[in-house]
């Protein structure tokens, strides 16, 4: 197989399909989503059989249990995929929406129309549900998409791709609007990220290593985040009950997510009061605490105590490990966060009005939270209805990215014969 | 002078200044703009003297008259620069604005806060007024900026930079928020566009050749357009009076601007009726008409008639030259435009409601206009108050780019102690 030729063909087909998707009606797009959902439920047994082949092969190559867990599709997971598509169908169609239509002194009326981006390339690991979620979001936002999932999920992804294309066909939409790359050859990814003539944006989802490599090689813009080094700062004006709940939830609700807290900052005046209480909570979950010298001294009896190293302040543990630092005040906290944070999500716990406003304004992260868990930084929790990924960049899309992040706008002018004087 | 070291230092200083600019109050930023405007009026004689030095040097090297014209600063141009700053001061401050603050079922309240981008690099040709306009827009949007103007304007730009920095200082803002590169060495540009650690976005303004070169080398995202191949399509349902006014204005109002029409498309059923009328108008301005075979036959007596070549459909003349093609209908017009247009600005002239809606939806350009001149595609005419440039890309900013294009948003969450269940 000539990978370069194959990818050129995939790219051309996607580009052609994207033109038809851009002008598809809301009714057609929603019909496609509902047809795909129905096909997935109808073919649940066949999907699980394809998934079984992938799982057997992955076990044989000794894939890690956590990866196997992501790869496996339970009956519930299949129902969730179908349900997710119906939820996307129920969202308002962003495409064609015109906002801010205003008359200008010249007599023209100027507004902005939301339009699709074109072709979205999505690169992800061995999670077959992403195939369906991403296809659904791209269809609804009037884009064509090229999907490249982890090679371990290839059989399941191809089974799902057939059902997606069946749904597109049934709704009178181009089947090539959603294409799953059929080869597991890594060169296909190299091609996908260097075809700016066909691909408008790449959404990479996966580990930091993968994304760093893609950034280096890609000539197509990306909507991405590298990692989530999220902070909670407990201010000396904090409500300590809220503080304990938030700091516990932000670390222990789930360890492997990018919006999980990795570093806890505590104001010196209340450190001796709050830290032992928090330690009691963390001890139940056997959370390792990597403390600076002051916090270390306060928590000397804690069973999973470690002295923090400089590297801890910039490490995403994705595990029951938390670094803790005591700071003098809000200024030191903001300075620490703006230096070490991955600009993903950071939380202040405080009842002080002015400090809350300062934290919101001065912390330079995609999501800045006062008095709530970092775990809320998520497309569904923020009300986007769905999420294609999270961006820690400032251009185009920032924070959780939903349908709008897969769109652009153009200016539209309603004239009545006006000319420039 | 070690250019790499020099630019690293400029970059670091800009990054530091950008942090202070991001949190500057509206009052401080507006005070700086007013102080700079006052300083420019006060030092008008000195500015013109610096400009005189540049003009003499440019004449000595034989700079083209059109370029000399752009380089020269009349008293009126100096007044306009000051007036422009006062207009920017009068615009609402976009930074810190919070929109769409909504309660979620979890109890948190989520919105988006507008924030500055950081450091903007601006690369432009020998037009000293851009120095002041760009500085003003970057100050107002809470960014730091590094300005690299055409080397022919170096004395004038440095004189203006001093006044800008005087204004920043007077308002208590960091003087390094606006830095003008002090060397005319081209290597400085190469450095500026490859310092993503210091520069968040590059706005290049200039000819297609310059921008193509920058695109190839830059590792920093750009807000840009390459050229303006703008179309007017006169539909067979057009009001022919409006059509003639618009087609004449779009070509002849100014020849050298990127929103000037370069290709006129005419529906076959009305071609014989409208084209001779238009030719009478164009003849007065000695506009050369490069026609396809059908239009050529209709305009056989026109004094400046040329047969169009394939290359004409993708040429930006920036001159009194117009290519003309006869098409069968709206579909052929849209297909031609989406193929040959530079996605800048395209106009339909028609009284047909459904065709107007289809043109607006299906033409994939930054500005899509019905029944008005392409010349309206401009930040001031669209009501942005000011313009840093025009983007024909779809990511981040599209069309005329004002203050908002120099900003991003972050999610802000107002919580009351909420945690994820």
TrEMBL record, chains A, B:
Record field: catalytic activity: L-glutamate 5-semialdehyde + phosphate + NADP(+) = L-glutamyl 5-phosphate + NADPH + H(+)
Name of a matching Pfam family: Aldedh
- A single GO BP: L-proline biosynthetic process
This entry's Enzyme Commission designation comes to 1.2.1.41
The UniProt entry's sequence similarity note says:
Belongs to the gamma-glutamyl phosphate reductase family.
Q: What's any one GO cellular component for it?
A: cytoplasm
Tell me the route in metabolism or biology where this protein functions: Amino-acid biosynthesis; L-proline biosynthesis; L-glutamate 5-semialdehyde from L-glutamate: step 2/2
Give the protein's recorded name.
Gamma-glutamyl phosphate reductase
Q: Which keywords, in A-to-Z order, does the entry hold?
A: Amino-acid biosynthesis, Cytoplasm, NADP, Oxidoreductase, Proline biosynthesis
Q: Which GO terms describe its molecular function?
A: glutamate-5-semialdehyde dehydrogenase activity; NADP binding
Residues annotated as domain Aldehyde dehydrogenase: 9-287, 313-383
Answer yes or no on keyword Oxidoreductase: yes
> Could you tell me the superkingdom of the organism this chain comes from?
Bacteria
